[in-house]
Amino acid sequence: MSLTRKFADFLDASPTPYHACENLSLLFAAEGFTRLDENTRWQLEPGKKYFFTRGDSSFAAFVVGERPLEETGVRIIGAHTDSPCLKIKPNADRVTKGYHQLGVAVYGGALLAPWFDRDLSIAGRVTYLDGEGALKAALVNFGRAVALIPSLAIHLDRSANEGRAINPQTQMNAILQHAPADARFADILLNELQQSHPEAVEVLDYNLSFYDTQPSATVGLKDELFVGARLDNLASCFLGAEAMLNANTDVTSILICNDHEEIGSNTDLGAQGPMLGELIDRLVSGDAQSRQLTLRRSLMLSVDNAHGVHPNFADKHDDKHGPLLNAGPVVKFDANQSYATGADTAALVRWLARAAEGREAIPLQSFIMRADMRCGSTIGPITSAEIGVRAVDLGIPTFGMHSIRETAGVSDLEQMASLLTRFVSVTDISL
């Protein structure tokens, strides 16, 4: 199966961070990685491969290297499982003019306009009681179009194409159905849950999101573009997973995919939380100096999508730093360190991308924002500061970041997979 097809299948089956973690877990288990429980003591063996999840929405897989950590350090690939979206409010039911609607809360910096007139479904995690009163949790995916947010006809808003603001509180309540007198989303959700978990008798709470049911696709006369939802940042999670499945067992490497990057990472599941640091503590046997020596020899690739230069808005880019789709992965720079890249870490990535015996060169691009604009944030600087590891920010160039449907280059997906595989395969990355 081609990398693009595998990615499309993964993306379409992962409408929420919970589903992404479940699918990553299934993938790594099938490839011989052992699942670990954070609530137990671990007995880790050199040359063996493991994975675990936290909160069902953050994921980590790692290889315990056969060489000492103080010699090799740790290779870390960091990404995030969450994407901007519309979440369903706790008391979401609204009945207006005979329509049963659900109120939404905007998660992250979402582009709102593309959510109108889409065939929306619902997915997420539900906590419930079974018939014996036990508290349980399960993933839910309606898997079909059950809602929409219709646009207002231009006849009723003649200035709609002149920069109309969107109010998510009043203008983005999703329509579910013509409202019966006793319309309750809790009843609808319980009925859906019981299709796969018949023991459920009451829904206590949920974390649910709307998502677009349109599947991923390749477009363009030569199928050179890949379009789909949540490319930011499930593309990096998937490509990091592809690399880890081919990791060199001589050295220790980690793939960590945190939740909550889109809202600042400052949570127990986010990059500013303790998940990665605690994993490194479990890996390092010895005193504090052993940990410090290990981290001094370590490197993190913070992999998060980059802004490809939009041909209709080319002036939004520095004219010397406008990444093109299908022209290679992007190394991201920021003078104020909103990206973690430094000259030394960028040089290491350029070295990895060079042609060598038995491998072709991987083209690289550079990105920095215009001097009169601020860039976004990533997990790179956060992780670097939290655990004291050198880092570099890079990603594949995309159009429409934070839209309900984003675009990347097919070739860039393949090139990034190759670059990440080299990172966890070479025996020495010291500088």
Automatic annotation (TrEMBL):
Keywords: Aminopeptidase, Hydrolase, Metal-binding, Metalloprotease, Protease, Zinc. Its cofactor is Zn(2+). It is an enzyme of class 3 (hydrolase). The keyword Transcription does not apply. Pfam families: Peptidase_M18. Its EC number is 3.4.11.-. GO terms for cellular component: cytoplasm. GO terms for biological process: proteolysis. One of its GO terms (molecular function) is zinc ion binding. PANTHER family: ASPARTYL AMINOPEPTIDASE (PTHR28570). Belongs to the peptidase M18 family. This is M18 family aminopeptidase. It comes from Teredinibacter turnerae (strain ATCC 39867 / T7901). The lineage of its organism: Bacteria, Pseudomonadati, Pseudomonadota, Gammaproteobacteria, Cellvibrionales.
